């Protein structure tokens, strides 16, 4: 929990599959009829778990910031496993003792259609198909739309008495653009052409503490096609960029 709530952003997001998608998991509906079922909700609709998207975004922002020589913690480094609590990545997605301020809810498919593809298990040693190694893989077809919600508690980052207004929002929106520009992939069997997706924001509500007090529980609503949204987005991007360049805020070395 956060000691104080300055504002909250609620983003409605949409994921469109550009190729077949396989995110495996235990299905809660009926016993699986295929070897590798896709993960579904209790009503049988395929889902993209929020944790999967978050994992992809976290890895992406880590790589980006490292590319800018900004020190961030590394989830692959056992020393800082779970996050150092202090770097920009931790401020966005949480650290060992720092709650994540970005919560991504599962995205749910708009229909139940899936397809079954045959696959062949490859023997790691011989690199040839294993005897009897044929198995089925269930996938969500290309063109499926998933919808979900992202919330950000406190879109700004306060550091050394300075408030970077909508830094977290800017960081997240920039990441989504970057992900799409590089034809982002999620899920499994990516090397076989699965999992190409596009993420779009359909609506953003920004609710301040004052809005709550005034009973304006929806706050201000922004639609991506408007100038207001683009202004908010570019200001937020500038706040994020200013924040990450302040190198005194990043992880200590060693
Ligand atoms: Zn960190």
Automatic annotation (TrEMBL):
Q: Which domain of life is it from?
A: Archaea
InterPro entries hit by this protein: CRISPR-assoc_RAMP_Csx7, CRISPR_Csm3_endoribonuclease, RAMP_III_fam
Its Gene Ontology biological processes?
A: defense response to virus
Q: Does the keyword Nucleus apply?
A: no
CRISPR type III-associated protein domain residues are: 14-198
User: Which UniProt keywords are present, listed alphabetically?
Assistant: Antiviral defense
- Cite the Pfam families for this sequence: RAMPs
Mind telling me which PANTHER family this protein's record contains?
A: CRISPR SYSTEM CMS ENDORIBONUCLEASE CSM3
List the protein's name.
Answer: CRISPR-associated Csx7 family protein
Q: Organism, per UniProt?
A: Methanohalophilus euhalobius
């Amino acid at each position: 929990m956060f000691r104080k709530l300055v504002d909250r952003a609620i983003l409605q997001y949409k994921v469109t599959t550009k190729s077949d998608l396989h995110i495996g998991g235990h299905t809660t509906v009926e016993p699986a009829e295929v070897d590798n079922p896709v993960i579904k909700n209790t009503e049988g609709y395929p889902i993209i778990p929020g944790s999967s998207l978050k994992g992809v975004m976290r890895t992406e922002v880590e790589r980006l910031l490292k590319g800018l020589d900004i020190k961030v913690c590394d989830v692959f480094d056992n020393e800082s496993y779970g996050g150092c609590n202090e770097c920009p990545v931790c401020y966005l997605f949480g650290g060992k003792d720092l709650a994540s301020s970005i919560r991504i809810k599962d995205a749910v498919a708009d229909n139940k259609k899936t397809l079954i593809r045959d696959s062949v298990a490859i023997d790691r040693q011989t690199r040839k198909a294993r005897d009897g190694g044929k198995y089925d893989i269930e996938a969500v077809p290309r063109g499926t739309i998933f919808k979900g919600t992202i919330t950000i508690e406190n879109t700004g980052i306060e550091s050394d008495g300075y408030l970077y207004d909508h830094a977290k929002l800017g960081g997240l929106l920039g990441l989504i653009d970057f992900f799409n520009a590089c034809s982002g992939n999620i899920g499994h069997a990516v090397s076989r052409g699965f999992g190409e997706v596009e993420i779009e924001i359909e609506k953003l509500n920004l609710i301040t503490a004052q809005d709550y007090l005034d009973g304006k529980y929806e706050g201000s609503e922004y639609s991506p096609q408007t100038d207001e949204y683009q202004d908010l987005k570019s200001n937020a991007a500038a706040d994020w960029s200013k924040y990450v360049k302040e190198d005194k805020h990043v992880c200590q070395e060693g």
